[in-house]
C-alpha cells in the first residue's frame, strides 16, 4: 500500500483552511463536539481511505475505520467514523470526503477493467499510465493499486520505453542498433518500445526488446501480432495501449495481450460518499 507523509496531508488541509475556519469560529463552536460518519451512497471500490483517516486525525479527530482501500462496498456500507471537537470535524470534513470520492472513482473504474480483462485471461496485468493530472501522481497510483492494477511507469526516470518520438531524433538507426546500445548502457533494465504497425513490432521482437507496446491496435490486430510472436524464441511481452477501457478490455485479453495499458480510469466520475453528523449533547453548546 502506498503511504502518505503527514506533511503531504497537512498541505491539503492548509490549502482548504489557510487562515482558520471563519464560519466555525464566528458561530462559537469551539466547545461543541460530535461524530462524523462516512458511508458509500452506491456500490464502489474505495481508495485513499487510510489517507483520509490520517488527515482527519491531523485535524484533531479520533478515527475508526470500517472499510479499507480496495474493498468492494455496497450502497450504504460504512467507511469511517471520526469523533472529536466540532472544529476538528468541520476542518477535515470536506477535504477527507473529496479525497475519497475522487480517487474511489478512479479505483472503481480500474476494478471494472481488471475484472473484465481477467474474465478472459486470469493472469493478465492491467497497468495505469502516467497520464494523470500533474501533481496528483501519488494519489493516482494509490487509487490504481486499490482497483487491483499496477502503474505502467511512474515517470521517465523509472523505465526505458522507446517511443516513435525518440526514433525521430535517430534517423537511419535500426532497432537492432538502438536495442544493442541500450543493453550495453543499461544492462539491468528491461527494454520496451511503442510500435505503430505489425511490421515494426516484428522488427522490435527480432531486435530483442523485452516488451512491445502496440499503440492503438484493434483487438483483431493484437490477435494477429500475438500469433506472429508466439513462435519466436524469447518472445517479448505484448502490451495493448491506447483506447483500452472497460468496454473492450475483455476483447484485448482474449486477443492475447499480456498487459493492458490504460488511462481511462483517470476520467472516471467521482463516487458519492455520504457524510452525517451526530452531535454530542453532553458537550457545551454555543449561545447565539
Structural description of this entry:
- The protein is α/β, with parallel strands linked by helices and 288 residues long.
- It is 41% helix and 19% strand.
- The protein contains 10 helices and 11 strands.
- Strand 9, helix 10 and strand 10 (259-262) form a beta-alpha-beta unit.
- Helix 1 crosses helix 3 (49-59), helix 3 (49-59) runs antiparallel to helix 4 (86-120) and helix 8 (198-206) runs parallel beside helix 9.
- 38% of the residues are buried.
- The mean pLDDT is 96.
Task: Provide keyphrases for this structure.
4-stranded antiparallel β-sheet; single chain; alpha/beta; 19% strand; 10 helices; 7-stranded parallel β-sheet; 41% helix; 11 strands; 288 residues
How are the SSEs ordered, and which strands pair?
Blueprint: H1 6-16, H2 22-26, E1 33-40, H3 49-59, E2 62-65, E3 78-85, H4 86-120, E4 125-128, H5 137-146, E5 150-151, E6 160-162, H6 164-167, H7 175-185, E7 191-195, H8 198-206, E8 211-215, H9 219-230, E9 237-241, H10 246-255, E10 259-262, E11 273-279
Parallel strand pairs: 4-5, 4-10, 6-7, 7-8, 8-9, 9-10
Antiparallel strand pairs: 1-3, 1-11, 2-3
Helix pairs in contact: 1-3, 3-4, 4-5, 4-10, 8-9, 9-10
Amino acid at each position: 500500500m502506498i503511504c502518505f507523509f503527514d506533511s503531504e496531508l497537512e498541505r491539503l488541509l492548509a490549502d482548504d483552511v489557510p487562515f482558520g475556519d471563519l464560519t466555525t469560529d464566528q458561530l462559537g463552536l469551539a466547545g461543541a463536539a460530535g461524530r462524523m460518519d462516512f458511508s458509500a451512497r452506491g456500490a464502489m471500490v474505495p481508495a485513499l481511505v487510510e489517507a483520509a483517516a490520517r488527515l482527519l486525525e491531523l485535524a484533531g479527530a479520533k478515527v475508526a475505520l470500517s472499510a479499507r482501500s480496495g474493498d468492494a462496498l455496497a450502497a450504504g456500507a460504512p467507511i469511517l467514523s471520526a469523533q472529536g471537537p466540532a472544529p476538528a470535524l468541520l476542518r477535515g470534513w470536506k477535504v477527507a470526503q473529496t479525497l475519497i470520492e475522487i480517487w474511489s472513482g478512479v479505483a472503481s473504474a480500474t476494478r471494472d477493467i481488471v475484472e473484465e480483462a481477467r474474465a478472459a485471461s486470469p493472469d493478465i496485468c492491467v497497468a495505469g499510465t502516467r497520464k494523470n493530472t500533474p501533481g496528483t501522481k501519488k494519489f493516482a497510483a494509490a487509487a490504481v493499486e486499490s482497483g487491483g492494477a499496477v502503474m505502467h511507469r511512474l515517470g521517465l526516470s523509472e523505465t526505458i520505453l522507446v517511443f516513435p518520438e525518440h526514433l525521430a531524433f535517430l534517423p537511419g538507426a535500426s532497432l537492432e542498433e538502438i536495442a544493442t546500445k541500450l543493453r550495453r548502457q543499461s544492462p539491468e533494465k528491461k527494454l520496451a518500445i511503442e510500435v505503430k504497425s505489425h511490421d515494426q513490432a516484428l522488427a522490435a521482437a527480432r531486435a530483442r526488446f523485452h516488451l512491445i507496446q502496440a499503440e492503438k491496435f484493434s483487438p483483431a490486430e493484437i490477435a494477429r501480432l500475438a500469433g506472429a510472436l508466439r513462435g519466436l524464441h524469447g518472445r517479448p511481452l505484448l502490451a495493448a495501449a491506447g483506447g483500452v477501457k472497460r468496454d473492450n478490455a475483455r476483447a484485448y485479453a482474449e486477443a492475447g495481450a499480456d498487459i493492458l495499458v490504460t488511462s481511462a480510469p483517470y476520467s472516471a466520475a467521482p463516487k458519492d460518499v455520504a457524510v452525517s453528523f451526530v452531535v454530542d449533547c453532553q458537550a457545551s453548546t454555543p449561545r447565539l
